[in-house]
Amino acid sequence: MNDSFGPPDLPPQRQPQMPQFPELPKLPFSPKLLLFVPLVLVLLIGVWSSFYTVEAEEVGVVTRFGKFQSTHDPGLRFKLPFGIDRVQKVAVERQQKQEFGFGTQGASNPSQFRKSAPEQQAEKQMVTGDLNAALIEWVVQYRIQNPTEYLFNVRNPDETLRDASESIMREAVGDRTVDEVLTVGRQAIEAEVLLKLQELVNRYEMGLRINQVQLKNVDPPRDVQSSFNEVNNAQQQREELINKANGEYNREVPKARGEADRSISDAEGYAIQRVNEAEGDAARFNALYAEFTKAPTITRQRLYLETMAKVVPALGNKIILDEDAKQLLPLLNLDRTPTPR
Questions:
Q1: Starting at the edge strand that comes first in sequence, how are the strands of the sheet with 58-64 ordered?
Q2: Are 49 and 66 in contact (CB under 8 A)?
Q3: Which of 148, 142, 155, 147 has the alpha carbon at shortest distance from 197?
Q4: What is the pLDDT of residues 4-26, one digit of tens each?
Q5: Which of 84, 181, 258, 323 is exposed most, by the fewest CB atoms within 10 A?
């Protein structure tokens, strides 16, 4: 027991003891291991970079140190590793398109449309041949026909195609009036742009095939669009009235011509009939005259009898009396109706 007035004695604190783990066996170290690991990695990278796959709609174009080497069809293919051979896959079976003046979101083609609205607005603003403004949106559909020409003959072929399409479209619109561009000239513009664009692509040897050029929205500037709509409605009404009048004309004129032709045919037939009858009467008269000259008395008697045979039946029932008869009653039977002859 401690007689002093200090604090009581405390038991000594125990130091925490670390858990004891079994010692790991020491692996033998070899300098050759440092060389073996990089060789394995290089070998794996070489094997991994030696094979590539070409999809069904693509063609693989192989270049060796930047120079064209060959093209390969779809399937699993082999090439030299470590960047010696490089492969560019070109979708030759895919229908691609470029939009001008507008853009469809979610497009797979990076050059399908301009990303900014000011650029799209500038694309579709055009001037016609009569110095009027028009807003034209169109689409160009194309395919890659020759992948080597597409990759190596022209730098940025898609952008070059966009510039060529816009230039040719402005030329075609500039050769026409605003009424022709906005109404009846759409098909002619599409055909002209398609032909000229394909000729220019062939001249540049871009390896592209232009399939279709299609005009979408063709409108006047927004400031005059309401006035243009009124003019367009008036033109449509005029065309409707013209078509209606042409329909009436086509219905009535052929009908009148048919009636006129029928009347002419009837008159010609009647004239031929009268001429034939007159010629027949003349021939019969000549024949009778020839007989009359041969036997006048007999001919005169025969003509008289034939004439009376035609005239008497038309007179109805008649009673003929002999001029020498003295009285009428003995000869007339009033109780019986005379038998017609």
A1: 67-72, 58-64, 85-91
A2: no
A3: 142
A4: 444 555 555 555 555 555 665 55
A5: 323
Core vs surface per residue 254-273: b (16+ CB within 10 A) or e: eeeeeeeeeeeeeeeeeeee
**Angle between helix 186-204 and helix 157-174 axes, rounded to 10 deg:** 140
The string of pLDDT tens digits covering residues 20-69 is 556 655 555 566 666 777 777 877 887 787 888 889 899 999 998 888 88
C-alpha distances out from residue 44 to 31, 41, 307, Å? 21, 5, 134
Give pTM, 2 decimals: 0.58
Cβ-Cβ contacts under 8 Å for 82 (sequence gap 6 or more): 45, 46, 49
> For the chain, how big is the Rg over CA atoms in Å?
56
Rounded Cα distance, 251 and 243, in Å: 12
Q: What is the DSSP string of 70-86?
A: EEE-SEEEE--TTTTEE
Find all residues with CB under 8 Å of 208, minimum gap 6, and list them: 142, 143, 144, 145, 150, 157, 161, 201
Closest-CA residue to 219 (of 140, 141, 124): 124
For residue 269, give both structure tokens.
Answer: 């037939």
